[in-house]
Specification:
Distance between the termini of chain A: 20 Å
Oligomer: homotetramer
Largest interface: A-D, 38 and 38 residues
Strand content of chain A: 15-25%
Number of helices of chain A: 14
Largest sheet of chain A: 8 strands, mixed
Number of strands of chain A: 15
Radius of gyration of chain A: 20 Å
Order of helices and strands of chain A: EHEEHEHEHEHHEHEHEHEHEEHHEHEEH
Chain lengths: ~350, ~350, ~350, ~350
Amino acid sequence: MVNVGIIGATGYTGEELISILLRHPQVRITYLSAKIEKPTPISDIFPKFRNRLNVTCRLPETDLAVSTCDVLFLALPHTVSMDWVPRFLKANRRVIDLSADYRLKDKKIYERFYKNRHRDVHNLKQAVYGLPEIYRSKIKQARLVANPGCYPTAAVLGLAPLIACDVLSGQEDIIIDAKTGVTGAGRRALLEYSFSELNEDMYAYKINIHQHMPEIKQELSKLGGKNIKFTFVPHLLSVNRGILETIYVKLNQSSVRNNQKRKGNKEKDLLKLYKNFYKKEPFVRIREGDGGIRLRDVVGTNFCDITIRCFPEKDLLIIITAIDNLIKGAAGQAVQNMNIMYDFYEQTALV
Amino acid sequence: MVNVGIIGATGYTGEELISILLRHPQVRITYLSAKIEKPTPISDIFPKFRNRLNVTCRLPETDLAVSTCDVLFLALPHTVSMDWVPRFLKANRRVIDLSADYRLKDKKIYERFYKNRHRDVHNLKQAVYGLPEIYRSKIKQARLVANPGCYPTAAVLGLAPLIACDVLSGQEDIIIDAKTGVTGAGRRALLEYSFSELNEDMYAYKINIHQHMPEIKQELSKLGGKNIKFTFVPHLLSVNRGILETIYVKLNQSSVRNNQKRKGNKEKDLLKLYKNFYKKEPFVRIREGDGGIRLRDVVGTNFCDITIRCFPEKDLLIIITAIDNLIKGAAGQAVQNMNIMYDFYEQTALV
Amino acid sequence: MVNVGIIGATGYTGEELISILLRHPQVRITYLSAKIEKPTPISDIFPKFRNRLNVTCRLPETDLAVSTCDVLFLALPHTVSMDWVPRFLKANRRVIDLSADYRLKDKKIYERFYKNRHRDVHNLKQAVYGLPEIYRSKIKQARLVANPGCYPTAAVLGLAPLIACDVLSGQEDIIIDAKTGVTGAGRRALLEYSFSELNEDMYAYKINIHQHMPEIKQELSKLGGKNIKFTFVPHLLSVNRGILETIYVKLNQSSVRNNQKRKGNKEKDLLKLYKNFYKKEPFVRIREGDGGIRLRDVVGTNFCDITIRCFPEKDLLIIITAIDNLIKGAAGQAVQNMNIMYDFYEQTALV
Amino acid sequence: MVNVGIIGATGYTGEELISILLRHPQVRITYLSAKIEKPTPISDIFPKFRNRLNVTCRLPETDLAVSTCDVLFLALPHTVSMDWVPRFLKANRRVIDLSADYRLKDKKIYERFYKNRHRDVHNLKQAVYGLPEIYRSKIKQARLVANPGCYPTAAVLGLAPLIACDVLSGQEDIIIDAKTGVTGAGRRALLEYSFSELNEDMYAYKINIHQHMPEIKQELSKLGGKNIKFTFVPHLLSVNRGILETIYVKLNQSSVRNNQKRKGNKEKDLLKLYKNFYKKEPFVRIREGDGGIRLRDVVGTNFCDITIRCFPEKDLLIIITAIDNLIKGAAGQAVQNMNIMYDFYEQTALV
C-alpha cells in the first residue's frame, strides 16, 4: 500500500485526484493540504467525499507531508510548486507536479511565459515530462514527473505520429483551434468566470500568446528534431469539462508515401500510421468512420480520442482530438504516471 | 422626450434597464453611473451596447444626475439606495428605486432583515410599492416608487386573488417552493456563483430566512387585512434567468362558494376568480389546460404567467407562477412603473 | 466471477449499468441486448466504451441470455419487462428488473397507472422491492428484485425514519416538491425533450398523477402501517442528472418526544432519529449544518443525501433529499442489490 | 401598414420572425401557416405569444395567403420553398425566402448539395441574395429575396473586406472553424439533438461537406472575381443560440500596402480597411482591443461582430465573427431585408 499526499487539494484538480485515488486499491490518501484558513476535514470542503474520506486538509508543511507520504501530488498554481518540490525530493519522496514549473526545459522561456524567476533550476534537469505515450520508460525511473498541461496533452498526442514520422510539409502551417470547458480556468472567484457571465457563451482568448504554447512547441520540436511552429487559438466553452482540438496541417505528400511504403488512399495510410503509433497505448483511441469525436465520449475518462480527415486535393489533414481536461489533461494522467512509477497495472483506478 | 438616468448601471438589472429603455421611443438615456474606477463608455462595460448607446458611465454625482435627468432608476445594492434617494427627491426628480430600501413600511423589520439602520425614514412613508397590478393609481402620482423584489412579484401576483377574495382556509398553510436562475444573485465575483461550481447543479438556500419574506408578508397581509403566514424555500437553478414558484395552499371551501356565487367545479371557479382579478392587466396571463407554466414562455418578457391546479378532496390548491427575474422581477416592472408615472402607454418597450 | 447480462442496454440506464459493472472486479459482462436493427458492437452505440468492452448488442433472445448469464438486469420500458422475467426465472437465473413491472404489489393499481394488463401476476408475489435500506435481508434471498423508481427512492428514504417512528401528525399534509434532470425521461427522440426546447427552462408536469405516486404510497403505507397520503409535484430541470426533493411535513409533536425519550431541540432530536435509522447504511448520508444538499454532491455517486430543517412554531419539518437518478435512482441501486444477492461487499464498484 | 405572412411559422425561425415583427410598428402579422394537423392559435403552439398575437396557424394555402398578405416570409425546409415561391410571385406578392432554394445561382450545385431537382429555375434568376451589406441596392428593387444562411452570413461578412480589396495571398489557405448553437439544427424530434445527448457536449460534423459551403463559395468568388477555395469545419456547441467563426487566412503582403497606401502596422491597416468597408453599416461592428468577440454580445441582436488579429511574421490573419444564428443569421436579416424593400428605417424592430 502506497501512501499518497496532495498539496493543493482544494482546487478542481485536487478534487479529481481524490476521486480517482479513492478507487485505487493499492494506495491510501494520507495527507491533504492547501492554502486554507484553518484545518478542515476534506469532506467539509467537498461534501461529495463525506463517508468516503476522513482526512483533514491543512496548510502544507514539509515534515508532516514527508512523514506520512511515499509520493506527493502537487496540484498547485504555477510558480508555487517550485518552492515545495525541492523539499520533498530532498527527503527522498517521489513527486508528481501538476503545475507548469518543471515542464519547460529552457528556464528563460519559462520565465518569459510565467513571469517569474525559476527558483529550482537544479531539479528542472531531472524532471521527466509525464506524457506516458512518449516517455513511459523515463517515467518508470523518475523521481520527479512534470505532468503535462491539458492543451499540450491533446495537441501533442494528436500531432506526434505525424511529426515523429515526418509527414508534415513544413511546420509553419499547423493551426490548432482549441476549445475547453470552464474547469480549465481553475477554481477561482472571478467575475469573468461567474455562471451568469459564461453560461450560453463562447469566445476565443489569449490568441497565440497562451502559456501552454511553449510546452507544445518544446514537445513537438523534440519529436520532430527541428523547430516546429504553429498557431494556437484557445476558446472557452460554457461546459464544465472537456477539451476538443481541431488541428489543421499541410501534408508532405512524398513523406506519406515513403513512410507507409504502400499505395492507396492517403487517409487510410495515415489512419494506419496513427494506429500503429499508438497500438500499445491503453488510453489513446484512434477513431474512424462516421461517429466523430465528441466531448461526451471522453469526459469522465482518461482517454484521448483522435480522428483524422484527409483532403488530398488540398494536401490538408484535419486532426481532431478530445480529452477530459481534468483527467487525461491533469489528475488522470498524474495517476497514470504514478501507476507507471510504481509498476502498478497502468489502468488501475482509471477505467 | 423624458431624460432618464441609471445609478448602478453595471449590474444585471442596470444592463437590462438599458436594453429596455433603448427600445422606448419616448425616453432618452442621458446619465449612467456606477461604482467604477474611472469614467468608462458603457459599451466598453457591456460590448453588446456598442453602436447602440454612446454614454459614459461614471461615479454617481448628485449635480450631474439631477441636471441631466427627469427620472432616475436606482439599481443599487440594498442599504446604498437610501443615501441617494433623498438627494434626487429634494431636487424634485422622480425616483424608481429597485433596491429593497423603500419596500418595507416597518423600518424595524427592514433593519432586522437588512442588518442596517434605515437612514431615510422620512421618505419611506411616501414611497409607493411598485406592483402595478395592485397599486396602479398610487404609482401614477408617486414621486418615489419602491420597485418590488423578484420573488415577491411572483408570489404576491400568484396569491393576491385568493387573499383579496378570502378564499384561504388559514394563512398558516401556505408553502412557497421557489426556484430562481442565477442572475438573481447579482453580478458578483464569488466562488459559489462561479460557472464550474453551479453548472448542472441545484440546491435550496436561506430556508425560511430569505430577506424577501417580510416583503411578501407585508403585501399579502395588507391584501388580506390580516397577518398572513407562510413558509418560503428558495432554490437556485443552473439557468441564467427566470423564477418559477410552486405554491401550496389550503382552501376555505365555503369562501369559494360565497365569493363565486355559483355552483360547479372548484378549479373552474378559481380560474374564473383569477381571470376576473387580472382581467385588465396587460402583463398577467392566466393559463389553463395542459400546457403548463414554464420559464421559456416568460424569459425575455415582462409577463407573469399563472396557472392553478385544484384538488378538492384535499382542499388543496397548487398555484404555479413564473416571471423573468430581471424583467417583471426588476427592470421591466421598473419601466412599467415609469410608463404609468408618465402616462405613457403601459406596454411601451415591454413587448 | 459472475456473468451478467443486460436486456435494454442502449438506454441511459443500460449505459450506466455498463459503466458501473465495468469497474466491478467480480463480474463479467457477457451479454447485451436491446431493440436494435442489427447486431452492433456496444462500442459503436456508446463510443465511450471503445477499448473497454467488446460485446455485441443484439435483439434479446432467451436461450442465448440464459446460456451466457448468471444474473440479468432488465433495463426495459414498463410493460415490456414482464414478458422476459418469467423466461429467465424459469431458467433459474436471478433477475434485477429496473422497470416498474414488479414494484406494485396490487396489480389493479399497476394496471391503472401503466395502462396495461399485468401478464405475470405469478411472479409479482415473489418480487422483492429493491430498496436495500428497508429490505436488505429479503434481497439477499431474492430471485427477482424490483428495483425502485428514481423519485420513490429519494422520497421513501427521506420519509422512512419519520413514518417508521410515527412522528407525522397526519398523512394528509405531506407535500413532495420534486425536481429531476432530463435523463429521467429516458433516451428518446421527442421534440419536447430536444435540447433547444429544454435548455434554460424549467417546469412542473404530471401534477399529482405521476406513475411513481402509487409506488411511493405503497412503500410509505407499508412502513407506517396505515394509508399515507401525499401531494406530488415533479418538475423538470435543464440538467442531465440528479433528483432533489423538497418535502414538507406536519409533525406530531408528542411522537417526537415519546420516540426520542429526551428533552431539547426538536431539530436535533429528529437529526438523531435520522442518523440512528440509517446508522449502518453505506449509501445514506445525513447532512447537518450550513452546507445544504445539492445535486453536485450526489451526481456520479450512489449516495442519497438527506437533511432536515425543523420549524417547531409551525410544527413543520422540511426534508431535502438528493440522489443521482441514474445511479442510486436506477443502475447503482441495481448493482447494490446484486452485491447483496451475491454476498459481495456492498460498496463494490459503487464508490 | 404592411400585412405580412409567415409560411413555416412553427419552427425556430418562424418563432423568431414573429417575435421581431411584433415589435415592428409598420407591419401587422395577418397570416401564419405551417405543416400542422389542424388549425391552431399560434399562442397554443408558442405560449410565449399569448396576449400578444391572436392569429391561427393553418396549413398553407395560396389564396388565403395572397389575399391577406403584402409580403410573405418563407421559413420552410429546403426543397419545399420552391413549391410556394412561384405562386406568391405570380400573385404579385413580395417574397423573402429563408430556405436555401434561391441562394445558389448554379442549379447544378444546388441539386448536388440539396439532393433534389430545382423546380423553379425561372425565378432563381431574379432572386436577390439578401445580404444587405453587399446587395442593398438590389434588395430595394427585389420581388424575391433569398435570405442568406447563418454560417454564410458570418463567413462572408468576415471575409468580404479582404476579398473585395484583394488582400489574400491565395484562396487555398482559408480555414473556417465554425461553432454554432443547437437551434441551427432546427426544431426537430431527433435523438441526436435531444437534451441528454447534447448537453455538456461539443463536436465537429459535416467536415468540408456542409451544404452552406457552395453558398459561401459563390459569394466570396463573386466578391473576389475569381474562384475562392476554403476549408469549412462546423462544430456543434451545447448552447441555444449563436455562431462564432474563427477564420484563418494567409495575407498577400503587397496588397495590404497597395490598398491602404500608407505605412505602419499591418493590423491597424487591416482594421482601417474593415472599418472603412462597413462604415455605413448599422449592423456590423468592428471590434478592436482586448475585449474580444463573444456570443453573449450578439445573441438576441441583429449585429455581426468582427475582430481581427494579425501575425505579420506568419503572414497570418485571424478573423473572428459572431452572430445570432436565428437573428442576423435568419429572421433578423429577413426583417432587415423587408425594411430595405419597403424603404422603412433599416433598424426598425431590430434594436
